[in-house]
Design brief:
The protein is globular and about 65 Å long. Strands 2-1-3-4-5 form a five-stranded parallel β-sheet, with helices on both faces. α1 packs parallel to α6 and α2 crosses α3. The chain is of the alpha/beta class. It has one domain: 3-Layer(aba) Sandwich (Rossmann fold), CATH 3.40.50.360. It binds flavin mononucleotide (FMN). The site of flavin mononucleotide has 17 residues, from α1.
């Protein structure tokens, strides 16, 4: 028995493409893993604090010497780290905000990525090494090869660096693009492409759930 850790981060609680594609993945994953469970965290509905001085200095202070503030900050981190390390697989939905990831998701990363707990110098020391993770990263525009915005996506390279590079996760990335085409009249000609991208994202979510 294991669990899928499913983390949503879109600030939109309804009408969010990344949440919808993530839900498709979760439903399909549960069908494939009827004995397993899902642990769910919503970083928009229940935001985490950004890293505080107490959290940083608390890590360098022995437990007996920590202030109340340091102890509380470390306790929160430890809860998030245990939740993360206990999972057998991961689903992260991470829309593009200003070419990068939502600040709520960055706050989660900063709380969980801790030397000696989740980060280690040698790849074979990393406890999450080789676990599967699916990332759904929706974006209003298109960033593929040959588009005017090629090279301006700082979501996928960053997540590859931290999730695959630092944590050793085996990543599959789903990218529903052009999601703003339905709201932005200037993007109306791109609506068929947006539809196709969204449909493909749901198909990939089903496929990756069978592998995860
Ligand atoms: C604060 C904010 C910043 C955004 N920045 C970008 C951006 O830099 N590039 C882009 O293509 N779309 C951008 N968008 C559009 C979102 O990426 C798009 O609406 C996406 O579908 C959001 O994911 P969601 O549907 O899961 O909420 C932004 C949206 C918001 C709310």
């Amino acid at each position: 028995m294991t669990y899928l850790l499913h983390i949503d981060s879109s600030s939109l609680l309804t009408g969010s493409v990344s949440r919808e594609v993530g839900a498709t993945f979760q439903t399909a994953w549960q069908k494939e893993h009827p004995d397993d469970t899902v642990v769910y965290r919503d970083l928009a509905a229940d935001p985490l604090p950004h890293l505080t001085p107490a959290a940083i200095t608390g890590r360098f202070t022995s437990p007996a010497d920590r202030t109340e503030g340091q102890a509380a900050a470390i306790a929160l981190q430890d809860t998030l780290i245990e939740e993360f390390l206990g999972a057998g697989a991961y689903l992260f939905t991470v829309p593009m905000y200003n070419h990068s990831i939502p600040s709520g998701f960055k706050a989660w990363i900063d709380q969980v990525f801790v030397n000696g707990r989740t980060l280690f110098p040698a790849p074979d020391q990393v406890p999450t090494r080789g676990r599967r993770a699916v990332v759904v990263t929706s974006r209003g525009g298109g960033y593929g090869p040959g588009t005017p915005r090629e090279g301006m996506d700082h979501v996928i390279p960053y997540l590859r660096s931290v999730m695959a590079g630092s944590l050793g996760l085996n990543l599959d990335i789903i990218t529903p693009e052009l999601t703003m085409a339905h709201r932005n009249p200037a993007m109306a000609p791109l609506r068929p492409q947006a539809e196709a991208s969204r449909a493909r994202a749901h198909e990939e979510a089903e496929q990756f759930a069978r592998l995860a």
